[in-house]
Amino acid sequence: MKNKDNRINAGFIKDFNILLDSIEGSKTCKGFMSIGEGKFYSNGIDLDWLKNVSADEVIKYSYNLNALLLRVLMFPLPTMAVVNGHAFAGGAMLAQAHDIRIMNADKGWICLNEVYLGIKLSETMLAYVKMKYGGGKNVADALILGRRYTAAEALDCNIIHGAKPQENMEAEALKLFQGYVGKEGIPRSGVGLFKQHIYKSVQDAFDSEVADGYITFSQGIMNDTQKKQFQSSKS
């Protein structure tokens, strides 16, 4: 990901899905690894972009964002997020949707800072964050206190798999990933089967929000102008 701080907007989601299509369509791929460059892995939702779109576009974006996170979570191949720098809010959500997470040992935080933004998580997000963070103290620290984890702290709390020095980080992470996956890879049918079983509650949460039209979550990220526009369209 090479778009500065890799803010997640409609274009980001479209491009990420195109790449996932190409990976899933290649029989030789044994997994996929995402990585940013420079200071950021991803700085989350592109709020500057979001505030300038229509209410209908916010609703469409809300669906597409959660659909992307669910797709990464359920992807029928092993996945690794190489968190080269800061991963905040939606960026942390994207990293946590991967099976394996590696952080930069020298700099960068991973942080779910929505509490400071006054943005409630979607039910889809909350369902898998609870699983990825292990519940209890970690969930309270991450969501209610908005804790910023360094690589060492994240590793100590078991929310990442490892930390690598910034120098040669990508190469070292790839070597580790290849060790997990093995020479022959892991059967896609098995990976897909187990993810569908493990993350069934996340799929159910997504489906319930689809039934709601993603309106409840969307209203939580709309500004006042968009909320008025939405209410006007319903009256």
How far apart are the termini?
42 Å
CATH-derived topology? 2-enoyl-CoA Hydratase, Chain A, domain 1
How would the global form be characterised?
globular
Radius of gyration computed on alpha carbons:
18 Å
CATH class category name: Alpha Beta
User: Which oligomeric state applies?
Assistant: single chain
CATH A-level architecture: Alpha-Beta Complex
The CATH homologous superfamily is named 2-enoyl-CoA Hydratase, Chain A, domain 1
Q: Would you kindly provide a written description of the structure presented here, covering whatever features stand out?
A:
It is a single chain. The protein has 235 residues and is of the alpha/beta class. It has one domain (10-174, 186-234): 2-enoyl-CoA Hydratase, Chain A, domain 1, CATH 3.90.226. 56% of the residues lie in helices and 11% in strands. The protein has 13 helices and 8 strands. It has helices spanning 10-24, 47-50, 55-74, 90-97, 114-117, 123-133, 136-144, 151-156, 169-181, 188-198, 200-211, 215-221, 224-234, and strands at 32-35, 40-42, 79-83, 86-88, 100-104, 110-111, 148-149, 162-164. It has a 4-stranded parallel sheet, sandwiched between helices. Strands 2-4-6-7 form a 4-stranded mixed sheet. It is globular and about 60 Å long. The mean pLDDT is 96.
